[in-house]
Every structure is written in C-alpha cells, then in structure tokens.
Specification:
By secondary structure, the chain is mainly alpha-helical. The protein contains nine helices and two strands. The longest helix has 25 residues. The N terminus and C terminus are likely disordered.
C-alpha cells in the first residue's frame, strides 16, 4: 500500500538516457576517439543540465569509454596499437573460457536460443555484423557458468566498441564470419568444450590481425 494510494511506474532515469545517447554516438563514430567532450555543447544539444551530464560522463568513464584528463578535460578514449593488442589478448582468453563454459553448462533451451540467433543473422546486412556477433557472444557469456569471466568480458565492451570502428580494415567477408559461428555452434552441440573454446580464441586472433597491425600509437597528451 502506497502513502498516496497511487502506483506509479517510474521512467528510466534521465541520466541513463543521456548515458545511452552518448554511448550510441561513440559506437556510431559520431564522437571520434580522442575527441574532447564539451559540456556546454552537449547540454545544449540534449537540453539537459550539467549535473545530469556529469553523472552520465562519470558512468561512461567507469566503462572505459572516456577518460578525464585534468587540463584537457574529458575525451573519448583513444586506443593505441599496444593497448589494442592487450585488449585482444585478454578478450581471446575470456572468450575461450566463455565458449568452453557454455558448451559444458548451457541447457538445451539456451543452445536453441543461440542457434536461433545465428539463423537470424543470415538475413542481416554485413553492416550489422558487429552488433549481431556481440549479441551472439552475449548469449554465451550470460550462460557460460563462469561469472568472473563474464564480468571481465562486460568490462571490455566499451573498449571493444571503440575498436569496432576499425573493423572496415579487417576485410573478413560476412559469410566467412557466419561460417566461424557455425563451427562454434556445431562444437557446442556435441558438448565439446575444449574445441568450442579453441574456435572462439581462433576467431579473436583473426579479428585482431585485421586491426592491430594497422594502428598507430596515439599522440601523447598533456595531463
């Protein structure tokens, strides 16, 4: 029983909406790596207060999507070659654990859900490949049985989103990507955790080759 006798379903917090709007802009490349985030301009465009914006920026900073430098202010994170290589190395290990864990622990219903998602990917456009693959591995991550690996993988999502903008350099045809996922699902169906993990890691190795070697180290910034 409420004090006023009314049940109100609250809308998502404004801060969450602003956070998602900025995150989506970074994902789309509208806010480029290294770009300074000018609070006055963002507040004017979104029609929000600086208090709300700063709360959203703090959240994105925790996700690793932006950095706060004392003299330069907040900017979209800029990832250099060595950091990209480190990200892919960690991602490779995590997705190997997630893949093997999913094959060993997923229920028949969860495997069916993964197969249905893969089937839906066949009718998507190549430009949607990143989002579709991200959802594919999110299903595996959420049901792999290894909560530590899953949590660390989520923490990498922001940096992986930045690296996604370089995916045009990878030159891996969409059909080949689907074939990689087909092989992963086939290994899962046989409950071969070892093979599933190896296939997931091999896929990350291939993705990293298309990005890391073409990257330059970011220019040093004055703190």
């Amino acid at each position: 029983m409420t004090i006023l006798g009314m049940n109100i379903v609250p809308e998502p917090l404004l801060r969450e909406k602003v956070t998602e709007a900025i995150r989506a802009s970074i994902s789309a490349g509208n806010l480029a790596p290294g770009q300074k985030l000018v609070e006055r301009e963002i507040c004017g465009e979104l029609g929000i207060s600086r208090t709300v914006l700063r709360e959203a920026l703090q959240h994105l900073e925790a996700e690793g999507l932006i950095v706060n430098r004392s003299r330069r202010g907040r900017t979209v994170i800029s990832i250099g070659r060595q950091e990209a290589a480190d990200i892919y190395a960690v991602r490779k290990a995590l997705e190997g654990l997630i893949g093997s864990g999913f094959a060993d622990n997923a229920t028949a219903v969860q495997i069916k859900k993964l197969k249905a998602h893969l089937q839906s990917m066949r009718s998507r456009q190549p430009r949607d490949a990143f989002a579709a693959e991200q959802q594919f591995f999110a299903i595996m991550r959420d049901h792999c049985g290894n909560h530590v690996a899953a949590d660390f993988a989520r923490q990498l999502d922001g940096r992986v989103m930045i690296l996604k903008q370089l995916s045009t350099f990878q030159n891996i045809p969409y059909q080949e990507r689907l074939q990689e996922l087909d092989a992963i699902v086939a290994a899962i169906e046989t409950r071969n955790g070892k093979l599933t993990g190896e296939l997931c890691m091999r896929r990350i190795e291939r993705l990293s080759e298309g990005v890391v070697n073409l990257m330059e180290e970011p220019k040093a910034m004055v703190s």
